Recover the amino acids of this structure.
């Protein structure tokens, strides 16, 4: 078996076996505590530039399948596991994870004491790292210390769709939404489609005008990789959408971009939140939901009072119960809200799915309000379906 090494930027070194593609890779070492969902993790564009260590010890048990990809390819910079499955077993499996990692050129390492690695990252913070099957420790460390840091990294345009595309509504179309693709996961337009939303997915650097033109009823701002402080183009676009008072919903990177558009700051968390079991308090309803997370940055906002912004006051609507991190924002006088966690929940849990319904309700309320403010003069309903 080919040997591999994992070297962290502070010199801590782990030796193991090659898993997936051979070669050398560098990225930010982070850990995910999801017990399931490795295929969704590997194909989540938000993980671009990151070497992901899975804390669950057995990875690859169910192989890979043709249904669970969250985007067109795997994006992780590298993959670290303890004990890979020797043989996948699942009725949906189309192949083994090991073969798929090779096919997609993802350099990984197995046989690692992922518990020790996780404790190290938890205590010292996420840091740059490298995996190699060809370099020695000193050579790899030199590569790692010369590599880009996640702080200041602008990665969304690199993962986003190049061309706009449309995901049709399932059944009757009720709303048309533009989604700013900063690294969107396929589950998101799927959830919207189920609620009668036609989603026009637009590239990361689309302008406010383009979003407003395509998103007649609302604008969605997706999750995505990199440092939100580096995505000024998205901040400018979101500001334009807020100025137009078009309903807006953001997830994860989208929450950070909304925060910045409102004038709030963002900062890097020590080791971030990545996993499927993170408790979040919804302060509006008083409920606690167990949610899916993948973020290394967070919005800086006071928890105890709303903050004044050019678009009216914004309050922290959700708080992470492990560490009191801002997990959601809600404008009090404008139709915009966002969450730092993942209601599209791929992989699960599905506690937060109703947030898509909240977006739809917001669009319905704004439509009604618009109609009340300026009633259409001569609109006649010729379809016979409306108001049935
Ligand atoms: N999933 C996401 O959208 C991640 C957002 C951002 N890249 C972060 O790490 O915080």
């Amino acid at each position: 078996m080919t040997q591999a090494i994992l070297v962290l930027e502070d010199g801590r070194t782990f030796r193991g076996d090659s898993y997936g593609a051979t070669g050398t890779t560098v990225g930010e070492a982070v850990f995910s505590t999801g017990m399931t969902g490795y295929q969704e993790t590997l194909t989540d564009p938000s993980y671009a530039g990151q070497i992901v260590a899975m804390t669950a010890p057995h990875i690859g048990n169910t192989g890979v399948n043709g249904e669970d990809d969250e985007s067109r390819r795997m994006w992780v910079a590298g993959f670290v596991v303890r004990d890979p499955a020797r043989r996948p077993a699942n009725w949906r499996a189309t192949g083994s994870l090991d073969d798929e990692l090779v096919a997609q050129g993802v350099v990984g390492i197995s046989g690692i004491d992922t518990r020790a690695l996780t404790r190290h990252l938890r205590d010292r913070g996420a840091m740059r790292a490298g995996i190699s099957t060809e370099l020695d420790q000193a050579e790899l460390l030199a590569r790692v210390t010369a590599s880009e840091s996640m702080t200041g990294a602008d990665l969304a345009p690199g993962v986003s769709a190049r061309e706009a595309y449309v995901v049709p509504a399932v059944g009757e179309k009720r709303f048309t939404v533009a989604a700013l693709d900063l690294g969107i996961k396929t589950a998101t337009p799927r959830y919207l489609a189920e609620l009668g939303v036609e989603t026009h997915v637009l590239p990361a650097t689309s302008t406010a005008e383009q979003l407003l033109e395509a998103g007649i009823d609302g604008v969605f701002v997706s999750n995505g990789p990199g440092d939100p402080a580096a995505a000024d183009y998205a901040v400018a676009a979101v500001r334009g959408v807020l100025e137009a008072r078009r309903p807006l919903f953001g997830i994860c990177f989208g929450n950070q971009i909304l925060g910045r558009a409102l004038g709030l700051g963002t900062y890097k968390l020590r080791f971030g939140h990545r996993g499927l079991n993170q408790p979040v308090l919804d302060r509006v309803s008083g409920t606690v939901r167990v949610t899916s997370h993948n973020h290394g940055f967070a919005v800086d906002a006071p928890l105890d009072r709303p903050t004044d912004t050019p678009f009216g006051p914004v309050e922290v609507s959700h708080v992470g119960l492990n560490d009191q991190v801002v997990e959601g924002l809600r404008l009090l006088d404008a139709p915009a809200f966002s969450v730092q966690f993942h209601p599209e929940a791929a992989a699960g849990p599905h506690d937060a799915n109703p947030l898509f319904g909240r977006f739809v309700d917001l669009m319905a309320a704004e439509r009604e309000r618009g109609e009340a403010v300026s009633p259409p003069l001569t609109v006649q309903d010729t379809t016979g379906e409306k108001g049935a």
